[in-house]
Task: structure prediction
Amino acid sequence: MALRIKFLLIFLLTISNIEAVVFNGDLTKILVAKPGEIFNVKLTMTNNKDVPEEVHINQADYKYNSNGENFFEEPNTLERSNAKWLELHQQSVRIEPGQTKDVYYTVRVPNNPQLKGSYSSAILIEPTEPVTTLQAENAVSIQIKVRYAHQIIVNVGALEKSLKLLDSNLLKTDTGHTLNMDVENNGNCHLYPHPTLKLYDLKGQLVKTMQAAPQNILPYNSVRFSLPLEEISEGEYYGLLLLDVGNGKLFAERLSLSIH
Result:
């Protein structure tokens, strides 16, 4: 009898040619709200399998860190959770082959003038059946399931923007060096910084300007920005990390680099 191992893949959006229930929408929903405001939000799913599919819809709190770890906690456990504000109109839905179906949830922002910053949680959308089974060696079969996490961020009241460089680490690879920079959001609101690194030699001459892909950062969470330092000669440098969060707001951090 084959040994069966089941993997649960979250955010499985980049794999093509797999028949599955597809979530047709943004994985992150950002609402700008006032205390007491109510929103109705639509989620759309399509079943491109040739059999009916039962999809379960649940809530969770979501956090992550710069080590690449993701945590889905019980709803209403994190400090800035908005899970209590959400009402799911249904917790399961049956979708026929080829059918597209809408489901809804309501966000009721508490009528509390003391609210300020970003509050968030996630809706987990999980079809019951695996989308495919892969046969590996030694009679092992691997089932792949899709699990989408739709994140709801509500911005309300005064937004206090702040970022902090936790650590920087220069790694040597076969093709050169890679600079990893761990950045924490220590403000009260969700940010989407665009990082730019300006690399200078010890004489103050600009050597190179590089940009990393922007990333979402929730309050009290951290992410890692990575930059390949290609064609940089050995020596001592210092870098100026600029984090652009929009509306003319920049955060700057200085770091020293020794490339050998």
